[in-house]
Design goal:
The structure holds two protein chains of two kinds. By secondary structure, chain A is of the alpha/beta class. Helix content of chain A is 21%, strand content 32%. The mean pLDDT of chain A is 91. In chain B, helix 4 packs parallel to helix 6 and helix 8 packs parallel to helix 9. The chains are: A alpha/beta, B alpha/beta.
């Protein structure tokens, strides 16, 4: 089984103007992905662009491996043009995903925008146990709501413009959730907070805010980071992320190999 | 002895032998092709490579990163990420961005340092029947000397002097863009390297690549490798910010290939030592182009990122080309530029 394989596009659904759902079937035996892992997808056979693009694994269905994507630049624009039957080059699954869902902690899954792609398979894995905080800029940006409704323990939606769910960012909603318990007994608050485990994926400012909240309240958890990547296998050293180190010296880890999922306390914002 | 093809080639054998008198030309093409006696070996100094395809420093990690995609035994040589005496953390992100037909990087020579390389990385590479060439960089001549001594003693097959990295302030480029400094550096390192071949990796950012390659040759280099990346820059017009943390970075990929081919050709006409050509090699055709311009061997760099199996695909492609052209060995390609005007005529 190789992690470098060819796959046939089954279909490429347009979900709205910006987002798409790409399903593909590997043409050879492949390794099963775990939640939070990613693939490098070849978007063109030409030299422009020539680097593969990293995409979080969304889910595996009878239709093959699925990816949820947002058109942001030239690469994703070309991806939008993929037609059923086309064969593309893929590398993956890569990196370290979220740790096995287990234990008795209450999972808080936090997704901002297209970050839902990374978190979705965890929602599935936690089978109705997870609180899912899902925010987007507007109603249009919220994807896969019907499926999420069925899989989440509780789904808390927010939009920046208030067009659906609560008005505000997912971070605001998370903050309210953690403070609105009404309990004043310090020990009670503490035991409640430590019973949570955070899993978050979304834009950098969101991840930073979630991390601060988690660290401030003593909640453990994980974030899935994003950085420009060329190789995806830890060779080019392009996708550096600052992490805390024992010494005073700066210390970087590689998002592709050491991540993309990191424990919250490890990242230096 | 003659029976080394597969049975399905039998009709071809019969055809070849029944037309034995057709002429030398056909025989010289058919025989190497049928009996696979193609010679892919090349020599870099006293180092014999099983084929001319190696990896470019900084694009193949320490070999292990790509070992699940490529049988490292198949490569001509593995050139590892640049090593310094002490570990280096590299530059802050963003470190890379893609540009038309190329990419900019400002990794900043992040590496594990000499000690960890010798302890953790080299033993792994030693398991393969492939020469290991170590790219080195220092802040001072002394550091280069200490590095090359240690690596030579550790038994590496080659040492590549990185005097051309555009992404760090102190080390690198300064040694490669000043003639006197380069001469002193190479000759000092030469004295301490006894077993390994000594390669100087030249910068494209010099007025005359010929002068610098000649200096490397005269100071004792066994070979030169070129080109390193070309300094470049990209700006995000929405934010007005540079796309790289370090503002500028090194451009690599197909965009720089014509520049690299030209510089290899110029160097070929200036020195007698072998040239390792690199810069945007994506396919066997690109590799052959470099060899026609005068490269004895080639290094595949950025292409590894796009296709982890690029190196082996290029080796097979070169073999096919030799067969198609009826050549017996890859050495026949080297410097085979079929030009109407010789280099000297052009420059007089």
């Amino acid at each position: 089984m190789s992690r470098h394989f060819k796959a046939k596009i089954i279909n490429n659904l347009s979900l709205n103007g910006k987002n798409g759902l790409l399903s593909m079937e590997p043409l050879e035996p492949v390794i099963n992905p775990e939640p939070g892992q990613f693939y490098m997808i070849g978007v063109s056979n030409s030299h422009d662009p020539f680097l593969k693009r990293p995409f979080s694994f969304f889910r595996k269905t009878s239709e093959g491996i699925q990816f949820l994507y947002e058109v942001r630049g030239r690469g994703t624009m070309m991806m939008k043009g993929f037609r059923g039957g086309e064969v593309i080059n893929i590398l993956g699954p890569l990196g370290k995903g979220y740790p096995e869902p287990g234990g008795d902690k209450t999972p808080l899954l936090i997704a901002g925008g297209i970050g839902i792609a990374s978190v979705f398979s965890l929602v599935e894995a936690f089978a109705k146990r997870a609180y899912v905080f899902y925010g987007a800029r507007d109603k249009e940006g919220l994807l896969m709501l019907d499926e999420l409704e069925g899989l989440a323990g509780e789904l808390i939606i927010s939009t920046d413009d208030g067009s659906m769910g609560e008005k505000g960012t997912v971070v605001d909603v998370l903050n309210d959730f953690l403070t609105s318990d009404g309990s004043t007994e310090l020990a009670e608050v503490f035991s409640l907070l430590t019973s949570y485990l955070i899993y978050a994926c979304g834009p950098k400012p969101m991840l930073e805010a979630v991390s601060r909240i988690a660290l401030g309240r003593g909640i453990k958890g994980y974030i899935s980071a994003e950085e420009n990547m060329a190789c995806g296998v830890g060779a080019c050293l392009g996708c550096a992320i600052k992490v805390k180190s024992q010494t005073l010296a700066l210390c970087y880890k590689m998002v592709c190999k050491d991540g993309p999922v990191f424990p919250i306390e490890e990242i230096l914002w | 002895m003659l029976w080394c093809g597969t049975p399905r080639l039998l009709p071809l054998y019969i055809w070849v032998f029944s037309h034995w008198n057709i002429g030398k030309r056909i025989r010289s093409r058919a025989i190497p092709y049928l009996f696979s006696i193609m010679d892919l070996t090349v020599n870099i100094g006293h180092l014999k490579l099983k084929n001319p395809v190696m990896t470019a420093s900084g694009t193949f990690g320490y070999g292990e990163e790509y070992s699940e995609f490529v049988d490292l035994n198949r490569l001509g040589a593995v050139v590892v990420k640049g090593i310094s005496l002490e570990p280096r953390e590299g530059n802050p992100p963003p470190r890379i961005c893609e540009t038309p037909c190329g990419m900019l990087n400002t990794i900043g020579l992040q590496n594990v340092g000499l000690k960890r390389f010798l302890k953790e990385k080299l033993p792994y590479l030693r398991r393969f029947d492939t020469p290991v060439i170590v790219n080195i960089l220092g802040n001072t001549v002394r550091e280069y000397v200490r590095l090359s001594e240690a690596l030579d003693n550790a038994g590496v097959d080659g040492i590549e002097l990185n005097v051309s990295c555009p992404n760090v302030k102190k080390a690198g480029m300064i040694f490669g863009t000043d003639k006197k400094t380069l001469a002193m550096l190479v000759s000092k390192v030469r004295q301490s390297v006894k077993r390994a071949v000594l390669i100087t990796k030249l910068s494209p950012s010099v007025s005359s690549i010929q002068e610098f390659s000649k200096i490397a040759e005269d100071s004792g280099s066994d070979a030169v490798s070129l080109i390193n990346t070309i300094s470049g820059m990209a700006i995000d017009i929405e934010t007005g910010k540079p796309k790289l943390s370090n503002i500028t970075g090194g451009l690599s990929g197909p965009a720089i290939k014509p520049i690299a081919v030209r510089m290899v050709w110029e160097t070929y006409n200036a020195v007698k030592i072998p040239i390792i050509g690199m810069g945007g090699i994506m396919s066997a055709e690109d590799a052959i182009e470099f060899m026609l311009a005068g490269a004895t061997a080639v290094a595949v760099g950025t292409a590894n990122f796009a296709n982890p199996e690029a190196t082996v695909a290029i080796i097979s492609g070169i073999e096919e080309y030799l067969g198609k052209k009826g050549m017996r060995g890859v050495k026949e390609i080297i410097g085979g530029l079929n030009n109407a005007q010789s280099y000297n005529n052009l420059n007089n």
